[in-house]
């Protein structure tokens, strides 16, 4: 039986750690963009991208905030690349109890990168003119085994009634609860 | 609500261990902006000229510039102010890096130290929690090593640390304060920190810095970023590579060793080696730098990559910037591998990369000329490189002859006597300068060198080209998109500047033109130093992204202070005059504004006199270089005018009507 083929857009930030100059402009602009009102302040501690830096070991890893996890993992990995040992968790995106990254400093609530929805490109990319961060979009074929029409119809109806933002919030909340 | 600034200073009394958070007066921000400007006011109010550099009453101020911590690219400088043990004047050395923004995020604009701690301590600031902690276990540790140890013991890898090494602890007059990739080196401020028994300041901040008009401010920031990209893609044609782009001179990125080794002086600023460079040297030195340099790095929120991580074989990794790349190499008449190696030790010890090599070369010159003898250097190795390591070690420990040399060439020469003064030939205001000896006097450079009170190299360079371009067509092309000029007349000055003939140096630019140019360049430096902007994006390079036309907007939108070019210029002149007033009160005058006798081969005593006379008059200073009463009152510095009159530094201006209310008006708290 032939399945319906669909394409989806995958948005990625390519991180070239060799080009990172460690300036943390990405942290600054991320926190400024997400301030309310927009740009009214900045504070790298609120940023959804952090540069894991150990200058004397030449370790510079910009990491993006990913999913929240309520518990830290049991085994952690250490990577040695080109003779440089990276700290455990250096490449992990989780907002996790094991570390102080990706949490609102006041409330402790988890932060997550939203790719600066609505901008042409994520602002960290725009501000990284040394090109350690570059933005890429690509189309991927997605295999759908359910009838997409039904979902679309349903969602559209809901979107008309509540607006897209509310639905996205609800979905995010539900998927979070499911994990908990 | 305060914008851009936090509105709070930390007052730390090291003698009693008392720490207070003090709200500052927003009117001072309007008058003196911040950073250097407000530092100058605090020094005026609280450090009278009777206070010795090593007195507990001397203050040591770490200030984040007004716009540090905002999204303004490259605004990350800490301005450290105190009375220098070497120049005995007000020092305002600066460092980039990450310290100033972190201090803002912790909720403070300045940390002001007074008194003297009974034991070695460090200050730990974590937002509202501020404490003095024991540092006796860190005595003798390197500055960079200290930072790592403190981050470990506090479990705060993200804390920013400014620390002194052994040189600061032992009050070496050219000791620096090191902060990883940056240092505040000039003027011996590290010695004052050591005298106060303060090993380090550690700061960690997780609060917000607020912006008055967010959308306007971001638009300005975006314009700056776009212009930086444009300038990166369009280097200025016809000038040497390190002057063609933005940032600090790109010494880490660019292989410009040929130019510097041929044009700067080697040894104790003595020898020019015009035939030094050859293919073998080129190959060897390129290999040295390329193999030791692991990465080009930046300060906070800046794309310019002016620094580098350097890993000399068999030595710990450190970070370097700018011209310290060659200062040790050239002082020792050695090679780049030696220079990059000894700079590692020098960074840990915490010494200024300009003064330290000069002092060591000076000592060896005295030995060669019999003013010092072998007995002064017991146990010093025979080999050239070994001698430099030996000298550095003895200076930072103040052992033997090192104790004398640790005071810098000016004071050491005085103490040694026997004609040693002739060898301390590269200072102004008692402070060692770049190893430069030139042939023809340049009037702009002369004025900046003579009258500068930052007393360091960037003070003598600026947005006006250092030399005329060979042909008029080159100059026409240059002025075409030169929108940074404060006035169109500067374009004409440059267009008419010829390499030879009537319109060439030393008589062109004429003294009045030179005054205009120097005043512009100086003003840019002073604005940068109040805002915390790196000179490398403003006062230092040609065609920078920050200039007199967008700065007022940055201040209005960022700090919420109504500002235009006129008001900004007035503020900059006000605290520039206040810096001079602090120094005037400490005895500085025309007699000190003399470049070394041999700085240029050809000197023009009458022209030089005319230049100084014209410039002093232009600035509203008397013929001794002291701001007149009229000038002081014009800038609202009545408290300075009254002090000068009371001290007899000034006599009543004949043309100023007496002000009855003056004594009351200047009552400042």
What does this protein look like?
- Chain A is of the alpha+beta class and 180 residues long.
- Chain A folds into two domains: 5-145, no CATH class; 146-180.
- Helices cover 25% and strands 23% of the residues of chain A.
- In chain A, the strands form three sheets. A two-stranded antiparallel sheet of chain A has the order 1-7.
- In chain A, a hairpin with a 4-residue loop joins β3 (49-54) and β4 (59-64).
- The radius of gyration of chain A is 19 Å and the shape is globular.
- Chain A starts with a strand and ends with a helix.
- Chain B is α+β, with helices and mostly antiparallel strands.
- Chain B has three domains: 8-204, Aldehyde ferredoxin oxidoreductase, N-terminal domain (Aldehyde Ferredoxin Oxidoreductase,  A, domain 1); 240-432, Aldehyde Ferredoxin Oxidoreductase Protein, subunit A, domain 2; 438-463 and 507-627, Aldehyde Ferredoxin Oxidoreductase Protein, subunit A, domain 3 (Orthogonal Bundle), CATH 1.10.599.10.
- Chain B is built from 26 helices and 20 strands.
- Chain B has a six-stranded mixed sheet with strand order 2-1-6-3-4-5. A four-stranded mixed sheet of chain B has the order 8-7-12-9, sandwiched between helices.
- In chain B, a hairpin with a 2-residue loop joins β17 (427-428) and β18.
- Chain B is globular and about 65 Å long.
- The two termini of chain B are 22 Å apart.
- At the A-B interface, α1 and β2 of A face β13, α7 and β14 of B.
- β2 (41-42) of chain A pairs antiparallel with β13 of chain B, so a sheet runs across the interface.
């Amino acid at each position: 039986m032939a399945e319906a083929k669909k394409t989806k857009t995958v948005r990625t930030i390519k991180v070239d750690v060799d080009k990172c100059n460690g300036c943390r402009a990405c942290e600054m602009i991320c926190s400024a963009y997400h301030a309310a009102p927009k740009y009214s302040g900045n504070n790298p501690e609120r940023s959804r991208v952090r540069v894991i830096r150990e200058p004397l070991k030449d370790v510079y890893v910009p990491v993006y905030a990913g999913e929240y996890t309520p518990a830290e993992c049991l085994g952690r990995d250490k990577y040695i690349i080109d003779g440089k040992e990276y700290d455990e968790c250096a490449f992990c995106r989780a907002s996790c109890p094991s570390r102080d990254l990706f949490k609102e400093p006041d409330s402790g609530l988890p932060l997550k990168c939203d790719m600066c929805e609505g901008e042409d490109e994520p602002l960290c990319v725009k501000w990284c003119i040394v090109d350690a961060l570059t933005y890429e979009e690509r189309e991927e074929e997605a295999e759908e085994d359910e009838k997409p029409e039904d979902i679309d119809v349903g969602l559209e109806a809901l979107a008309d009634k509540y607006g897209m933002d509310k639905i996205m919030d609800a979905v995010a909340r539900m998927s979070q609860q499911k994990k908990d | 609500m305060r914008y851009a600034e936090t509105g709070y200073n930390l007052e730390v009394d090291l003698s009693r261990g008392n720490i207070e958070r003090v709200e500052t007066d927003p009117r001072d921000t309007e008058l003196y902006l911040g950073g250097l400007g407000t530092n100058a006011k605090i020094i005026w109010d609280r450090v009278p000229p009777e206070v010795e550099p090593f007195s507990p009453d001397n203050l040591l101020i770490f200030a984040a510039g007004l716009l540090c911590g905002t999204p303004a690219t490259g605004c990350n400088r800490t301005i450290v102010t105190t009375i220098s043990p070497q120049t005995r004047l007000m020092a305002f050395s600066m460092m980039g890096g990450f310290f100033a923004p972190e201090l803002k995020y912790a909720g403070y604009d300045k940390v002001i130290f007074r008194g003297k701690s009974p034991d070695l301590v460090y200050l730990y600031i974590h937002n509202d929690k501020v404490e003095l902690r024991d540092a006796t276990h860190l005595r003798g540790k390197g500055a960079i090593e200290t930072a790592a140890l403190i981050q470990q013991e506090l479990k705060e890898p993200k804390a920013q640390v400014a620390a002194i090494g052994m040189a600061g602890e032992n009050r070496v007059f050219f000791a620096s304060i090191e902060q990883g990739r940056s240092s505040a080196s000039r003027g011996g401020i590290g010695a004052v920190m050591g005298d106060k028994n303060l090993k380090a300041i550690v700061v960690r901040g997780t609060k917000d810095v607020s912006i008055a008009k967010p959308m306007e401010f971001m638009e300005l920031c975006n314009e700056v970023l776009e212009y930086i990209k444009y300038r990166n893609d369009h280097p200025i044609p016809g000038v040497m590579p390190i002057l063609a782009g933005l940032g600090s001179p790109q010494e880490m990125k660019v292989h410009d060793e040929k130019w510097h080794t041929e044009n700067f002086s080697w040894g104790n600023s003595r020898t020019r080696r015009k035939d030094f460079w050859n293919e073998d040297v080129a190959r060897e030195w390129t290999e040295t730098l390329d193999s030791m340099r692991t990465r080009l790095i930046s300060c906070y929120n800046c794309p310019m990559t002016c620094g580098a991580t350097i890993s000399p074989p068999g030595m710990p990794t450190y970070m370097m910037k700018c011209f310290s790349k060659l200062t040790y190499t050239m002082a020792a008449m050695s090679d780049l591998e030696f220079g990059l190696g000894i700079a590692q030790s020098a960074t840990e010890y915490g010494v200024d990369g300009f003064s330290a090599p000069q002092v060591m070369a000076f000592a060896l010159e005295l030995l060669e000329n019999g003013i010092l003898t072998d007995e002064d250097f017991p146990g010093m190795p025979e080999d050239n490189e070994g001698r430099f390591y030996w000298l550095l070690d003895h200076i930072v420990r103040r052992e033997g002859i090192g104790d004398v040399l640790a005071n810098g060439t000016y004071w050491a020469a005085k103490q040694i006597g026997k004609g040693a003064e002739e060898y301390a030939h590269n200072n102004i205001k008692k402070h060692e300068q770049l190893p430069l000896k030139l042939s023809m006097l340049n009037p702009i450079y002369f004025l900046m060198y003579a009258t500068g009170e930052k007393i360091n190299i960037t003070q003598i360079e600026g947005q006006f080209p250092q030399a005329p371009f060979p042909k008029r067509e080159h100059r026409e092309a240059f002025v075409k998109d030169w929108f940074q000029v404060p006035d169109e007349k500067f374009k004409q000055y440059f267009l008419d500047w010829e390499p030879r003939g009537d319109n060439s140096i030393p008589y062109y630019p004429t003294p009045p033109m030179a005054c205009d140019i120097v005043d512009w360049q100086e003003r840019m430096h002073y604005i940068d130093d109040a805002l915390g902007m790196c000179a490398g994006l403003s006062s230092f390079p040609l065609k920078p992204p920050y200039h007199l036309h967008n700065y007022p907007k940055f201040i209005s939108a960022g700090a919420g202070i109504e500002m235009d070019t006129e008001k900004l210029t007035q503020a900059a002149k006000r605290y520039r005059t206040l810096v001079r007033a602090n120094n005037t009160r400490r005895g500085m005058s025309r007699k000190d504004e003399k470049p070394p006798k041999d700085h240029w081969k050809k000197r023009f005593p009458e022209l030089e006199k005319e230049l100084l006379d014209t410039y002093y008059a232009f600035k509203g200073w008397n013929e001794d270089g002291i701001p007149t009463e009229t000038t002081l009152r014009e800038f609202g510095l009545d408290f300075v005018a009254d002090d000068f009159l009371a001290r007899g530094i000034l006599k009543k201006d004949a043309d100023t009507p007496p002000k009855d209310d003056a004594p009351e008006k200047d009552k400042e708290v």
